[in-house]
UniProtKB/TrEMBL annotation:
Species of origin: Runella slithyformis (strain ATCC 29530 / DSM 19594 / LMG 11500 / NCIMB 11436 / LSU 4)
Protein name: XRE family transcriptional regulator
């Protein structure tokens, strides 16, 4: 992934990469089907754009070998607005 770890999921992915000694490259058969999350949603969860559901946290925690609480720690979605709106 080679990104600065900011979200709990990014931290889990970075630790997974360190343990395995190679970059994490998710594939449909070995990752997405196994954890039950599609590529788009995983990317949004990884960037912290959406809150993680309990079943997702459980599946991801099992795959990456971390506790569910580590993934749900500081779970605040960081949605980016597409248009600047100022309120008066």
């Amino acid at each position: 992934m080679s990104m600065n770890a900011r979200t709990p999921l990014q931290i889990a992915v970075n630790r997974y990469e360190q343990r395995n000694g190679c970059p994490f490259v998710p594939t449909r058969k070995l990752f997405y089907d196994r954890v039950g999350i599609n590529q788009k949603r995983f990317g949004m969860l990884l960037r912290g754009e959406l809150p993680m559901y309990g079943f997702e946290a459980k599946s991801l925690a099992q795959f990456f070998g971390v506790e569910v609480t580590e993934l749900l720690n500081d779970e605040k979605p960081v949605r980016k607005s597409k248009s600047p709106i100022t309120t008066v």
